[in-house]
Structure formats: structure tokens, C-alpha cells
Design a protein that fits this description.
minor pseudopilin epsh fold; globular; manganese; oxidoreductase; 53% helix; Mn/Fe_SOD; mainly alpha; 10 helices; EC 1.15.1.1; mitochondrion
Amino acid sequence: MLCRLASRGRSRTQLIAALGCSASRQKHTLPDLPYDYGALQPHITAEIMQLHHSKHHATYVNNLNIAEEKYKEALAKGDVTAQVSLQPALKFNGGGHINHTIFWTNLSPNGGGEPQGELMEAIKRDFGSFGNFKEKLTAVSVGVQGSGWGWLGFNPDQGCLQVTTCYNQDPLQGTTGLIPLLGIDVWEHAYYLQYKNVRPDYLKAIWNVISWENVSARYTACKK
């Protein structure tokens, strides 16, 4: 089934809603991982997971809180120029927080294999086979120039699954309208210490720790 990207007209509204950008919002916090840092070895080392989670993700969270505080002050002052100037920081750090929060739950030491049930049926419907889907998501993720993410998303307008990429930390739903189901981080900090500059090897390995239970639950929830 061919399907187009969902409307981008909702991008700014969705991103602000996802960040919970309001005066009463409590500060964002770094979520705990649902497994130990070493649980995904040998596919992803404990050193990478610790740095990725406790340093990189933590930095996005801290900078998002700073940007939101400045944005709240700009709103209170009616300073539109300051509000506009803060949009890149909100998008980058907010996206980094959103993306990584999804990413950790998409992985599991008990992952790998193939999905079952409705998700597998949808994959076969929209990509022809699981093998075709896996090949396509791998290819677009390898092809990201610089830093970014490969995504499997649900298009609510078309009612179908779609593979796409986002650059830097652009959040999938906030920039494309697609609901994120599975995200693969292809920033070098996600793999360089183990796989050096050979991104295809990292992508080959990560399929062994994909939590299809989590991806399936996301697919079920987005259709309600």
C-alpha cells in the first residue's frame, strides 16, 4: 500500500503538546532504563549504553528544561523574538528526549526475531514481507547523512505503516505527523565505540535486541 506522509501542518502544535510546554509543567527527568546497561551485550556494549543514557540523553533533558524555563519567561514578558529564537533549542533537545525515551523501550535483552499478530499482518500488508520491511528500514537508516534516526511509524491519515528518517533529533510525530513505533538511533554516539564508522554492522546487530512486544503495543495503542 502506498501512503503519503501525514500532514505537516500540525507539526508545531504536536511538538509543543509532546513537550508539555506550559507554565505548570514539572521539569523533565531522565527515565530509568528497563534493563541493566550490560543487558544488551554483545550487540550493544555496556559502555555505550551507559554513556548514551547517562550522558547524552541526560544532556538533552537538562537543556530542554533550561530552554522551557527561558521560553516561559519569554511568554510572561510577551517577548515574541525570544520565543522564536528558542524554537530550535526546544525542537533539538525536546526531540532528543522524546526519541531516546522511545528508543530505550524499543530495545530488550529478550528481543529479536519477528513480530507476531496484528503488527506482522500490517507489515506484510504494507511492505510485502517482514524481510522487505527489515531491508528497507536498514537501508534508509544506513543512508542517513550525518546524524539522525530511522523510523517505523503509523500514518493515521492513511491507516498504514511507513518507513522514514529524521535528521538530527527531529521528533517523528512533531515533524511528519507519523506516530512512532520503532526508532533506530544512527547518531555515532549510539555505536561508534563498538562498531567504529561501520554503521551497517551496528544496524545488523540491533535487530537482535528489538522488542517486538513494545513495538506491537505501540501499534495497538495508536489505532485506538
